[in-house]
Design brief:
By secondary structure, the protein is an all-beta fold. The protein contains no helices and eleven strands.
Length: 123
């Protein structure tokens, strides 16, 4: 019922900024949503989440640098990434879930996933 498509990835120099977008084709107004990332040879890690009432959370590695937001009118999820570091290099995935009891930092709690968009940060 929900389809997600990420965009906005690319290559940027360390210290620069990128804004990722996630367009949702279904109604996600009551869903919680999040961003995950996966570097080559590593596990998929949680980055940030936002629930249906606007509560947000961030992984320690990105707190203070990344901002998650949602445009409800356009049904688009954003991830503003500032002060990027080489260790931020990864494939970034948008996700959404509707579980009654969810742990937003785990992939198991998210039912729908986008195809991913690549972010490369060079030094």
């Amino acid at each position: 019922q929900v389809q997600l498509v990420e965009s906005g990835g690319g290559s940027v120099q360390a210290g620069g900024s990128l804004r990722l977008s996630c367009a949702a084709s279904g109604d996600t107004q009551s869903y919680y949503m999040g961003w995950f990332r996966q570097a080559p040879g590593k596990e998929r890690d949680w980055v940030a989440f936002i629930n249906n009432i606007g509560t947000t959370g961030y992984a320690d590695s990105v707190k203070g640098r990344f901002t998650i937001s949602k445009d409800n009118a356009e049904n688009i999820l954003y991830l503003q990434m500032n002060s990027l570091k080489p260790e931020d290099t990864a494939m970034y995935y948008c996700a959404a879930g509707d579980r009654r009891f969810a742990i937003w930092s785990t992939t198991e709690s998210f039912r729908y996933w986008g195809q991913g968009t690549q972010v490369i940060v060079s030094s």
